[in-house]
Amino acid sequence: MNDAIPMRTTMLAVVLFSIVGNAAPVGGQSPGGPVARRDWSDPFKRVVLGEDGNVWIGFDGSLRERFETWNGFNFGFNPAAKDASFLLTRAMASGDLHLGDDFRVFLQYKSSMVTDRTLGRPIDVDQLAVQQGYAEARLPGSEGKALTVRLGRMEMTPGRERLVSSLDWANVRQTFDGGSVAASAPDRSLTAFWVRPVIVKPYTSNVRDSATVFYGAYGTRRFASANVGLDAYWMGLQRRAATFNGTTGPEDRQTFGGRAWGPVRPGSSRFDYDLEAALQTGTLGTNDISAHMVAGQAGYTFAGVQGAPRVYAGIDYASGDEMAGGDVQTYNLLFANPHAYLGYEDVIGRPNALDLSVGTAMRVWRDLVGQLDLHNYSRVSAGDKIYNKLGGVIPGRTGTLSTLPKAVGAEFDLTMRYPVIRHALLTGGFSHFFPGAYIDQSGPNASINFAYTALLLTL
């Protein structure tokens, strides 16, 4: 597949960003008086449209350029795509219209493009689309409480995005059509939603997925005195057709789970933790679903040491089928963000995978932060395959599935982040995947090398 973009559309990212960057403020007064200008972008954050200051619009925008280099992509089984270098561009521009304190309309456009390559990755191109467009009404209550209703196209990022995410790393971010109702207070919130995922059409208008319904509720409670946060959630997924390890049919899957996080004790040097678990039930055709996942990370920050290094260890575990066909034990990762947890090369997805990881991060020089992660992957169940983050099967050795080795491989990730200025973030990284005994190493290059450099500009 050739994803080359014509020159006229290559300029679209610059145009979108320029619309925001060059917009002139309509008014120079905020409700409290003249705008206190601390940065050149401040006037665009709140442009007052009325004399009383109750009607205003805020502008925002970003432009991200990321250069990627791959050697052995997809274990080299597609010779035309195994070695590739290309530039990814993502431009986003938004307007946020406030009509008083309790009603707003938000509109955000995006343009995601890539230079010519034959990689065929489906998350890189969306020439011009509405990323978000919704109306939101807020009913305030006493003591900081509020009820907020949102309708339209929206991103969803509850908790640590282990179940639902905007997929910010991808050049094409994930979004949904539908509505939500959120009740909030200073120390707690509960959000109920009913949405359909948006299907990306790279060169035409995106459409909602009429064959899929996603709904549920997500609650959060914070206990400041104990430095603890707790989440609890229920999410339902209905699809007209799905396939898991040889079982096919309409999918009706319910996910119940919870999460706990926080520092063990407050202070400069401290332990921290984040633990999450979920259970999935339901049916796939005439067969029952019974799947689960457990994930978490614990770390310690040495605040008194130069660079304030943090060391951590993590686990990511999700169930797989005992055998092909029949009842389903394969975990459905829903609309999650595996990139943040299972390695930056995105080789391994969560279903039927066990990932044991360790890492460290520290300030190397001034505001330059370096991070090193090591992952070790294996299959959970010998009766199931190993999958990537899009649900595709990773090629295993030839033979009976149940007799193949469980060792999938290991990954090394080195990343660096440096805020050049307030509106510019420079990042870069290098990753190497070491194939394990399960991987079919008959391809031209069974190992994978990945390197990237990215610059993010924001308004």
CATH fold-level topology: Porin
Order of helices and strands: HHEEHEEEEEEEEEEEEEEEEEEEE
DSSP strand content: over 45%
Helix content: under 10%
Which architecture per CATH? Answer: Beta Barrel
Largest sheet: 18 strands, antiparallel, barrel
The number of distinct helices, counting runs of at least 4 residues, comes to 3
Q: What general outline do the C-alpha atoms trace? A: globular
The parts where pLDDT drops under 50 for at least 5 residues are: 1-36
User: According to CATH, what is the class?
Assistant: Mainly Beta
Tally of structural domains: 1
* Overall strand count: 22
Secondary-structure class: mainly beta
Would you tell me the overall average pLDDT?
Answer: 88
Q: Distance between the terminal alpha carbons, to the nearest Å?
A: 34 Å
- Calculate Rg over CA atoms: 23 Å
In short:
With 459 residues, this protein is mainly β. The protein has helices at 7-10, 12-21, 42-45, and strands spanning 29-30, 33-34, 47-48, 55-71, 83-99, 103-114, 126-140, 146-154, 176-185, 188-199, 207-208, 212-223, 228-244, 247-263, 270-284, 287-301, 310-318, 353-365, 368-379, 407-421, 424-435, 448-458.
Structure description:
- With 459 residues, this protein is mainly beta.
- It has one domain: Porin (Beta Barrel), CATH 2.40.160.100.
- It contains 3 helices and 22 strands.
- The radius of gyration is 23 Å and the shape is globular.
